[in-house]
């Protein structure tokens, strides 16, 4: 595992954007994109490079990490809408090349299986961006998730619903269930890039990077990966 500690969140964003840019410039690439606040700076930097340097996303393809169950794609807090408004619609990426999980599918287990098959049919993910929850979750793989899990339905912990309540009116408005790529699914991406900034993530980063490999800290699964890069600012690196 490669750990990159940068001084500021802006430098973190620039390092992550460098990794994505290299992959995009190499040719048609498949990106795994995450929501949450952690990768937002990196998306802003990539949008800037698109406008200022002509970084061309037209041949890239995107798979999302996870989705809330019960929200229509058009809901402003669905991860499909969020990734469109924060990134896709601000670069030259056709929304038809963006694949997400359907949180309103009548058969959620079938939807999860379809998604894993779609990722495989696309040749897998080249670069997967990841945030990390304060409890060490990645995607929506909450503590206790099997390290080899596939895409499936999960129930959110109270802590994650509290953490995400800021995007909704109140905790009660945060959906209880989600669909998420599994830890095994995520681990099949060729390059995992985890991004975390701020002191609030310091415990989770220390557990993921230097703690034991355990389902209690799902992000520790990165320790098993052939090519994982963790990009953090000094605040998030405090306990390393
Ligand atoms: C949500 C997302 C995760 C994200 C996490 C942390 O739970 N499903 O992918 O990593 O939030 O979010 P933030 O980066 O806003 O702290």
Explained architecture:
The strands form 2 sheets. The chain has a 7-stranded parallel sheet, with helices on both faces. Strands 4-8-7 form a 3-stranded antiparallel sheet. By secondary structure, the chain is α/β, with parallel strands linked by helices. The model has no long low-confidence stretch (mean pLDDT 97). Helix 1 crosses helix 2. It contains 7 helices and 10 strands. The structure holds 2-amino-2-deoxy-6-O-phosphono-alpha-D-glucopyranose. 2-amino-2-deoxy-6-O-phosphono-alpha-D-glucopyranose binds at residues 34-38, 65-66, 131-133, 139-140, 160, 164. It is an enzyme of class 3 (hydrolase). Its EC number is 3.5.99.6. Catalyzes the reversible isomerization-deamination of glucosamine 6-phosphate (GlcN6P) to form fructose 6-phosphate (Fru6P) and ammonium ion. The active site is at residues 66, 135, 137, 142.
- Low-pLDDT parts are none
CATH C-level: Alpha Beta
Main β sheet profile: 7 strands, parallel
User: Within the CATH hierarchy, at the fold level, what is the topology?
Assistant: Rossmann fold
- What bound compounds does this protein have? 2-amino-2-deoxy-6-O-phosphono-alpha-D-glucopyranose
In total, the number of strands is 10
Distance between the termini: 13 Å
| SS content category | alpha/beta
Rg, Cα atoms, Å: 16 Å
The number of helical runs is 7
**How many domains in all?**
1
Order of helices and strands: EHEHEEHEHEEHEHEHE
Portion of residues in helices?
A: 25-40%
Q: Which CATH architecture?
A: 3-Layer(aba) Sandwich
Q: If you average the pLDDT, what whole number results?
A: 97
Biggest sheet strand line-up: 1-10-9-6-2-3-5
User: Shape, please?
Assistant: globular
Strand content: 15-25%
């Amino acid at each position: 595992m490669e750990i990159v500690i940068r001084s500021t969140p802006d430098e973190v964003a620039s390092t992550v954007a460098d990794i994505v840019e290299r992959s995009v410039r190499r040719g048609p690439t498949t990106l795994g994109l995450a929501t949450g606040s952690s990768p937002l700076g990196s998306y802003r930097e990539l949008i800037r490079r698109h406008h200022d340097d002509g970084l061309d996303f037209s041949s890239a393809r995107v798979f999302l990490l996870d989705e809330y169950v019960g929200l229509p794609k058009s809901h402003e807090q669905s991860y499909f809408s969020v990734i469109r408004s924060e990134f896709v619609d601000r670069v030259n990426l056709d929304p038809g090349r963006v694949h997400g999980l359907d949180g309103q599918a009548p058969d959620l287990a079938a939807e999860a299986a379809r998604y894993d098959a779609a990722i495989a049919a696309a040749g897998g993910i080249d670069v997967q961006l990841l945030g990390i929850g304060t409890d060490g979750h990645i995607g929506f793989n909450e503590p206790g998730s099997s390290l080899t899990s596939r895409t499936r339905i999960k129930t959110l912990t109270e802590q994650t619903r509290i953490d995400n309540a800021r995007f909704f009116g109140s905790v009660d408005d945060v959906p209880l269930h989600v669909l998420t790529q599994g830890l095994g699914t995520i681990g099949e991406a060729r390059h995992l890039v985890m991004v975390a900034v701020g002191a609030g993530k310091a415990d989770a980063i220390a557990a993921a990077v230097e703690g034991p490999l355990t389902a209690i800290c799902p992000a520790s699964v990165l320790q098993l990966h052939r090519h994982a890069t963790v990009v953090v600012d000094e605040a998030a690196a405090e306990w390393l």
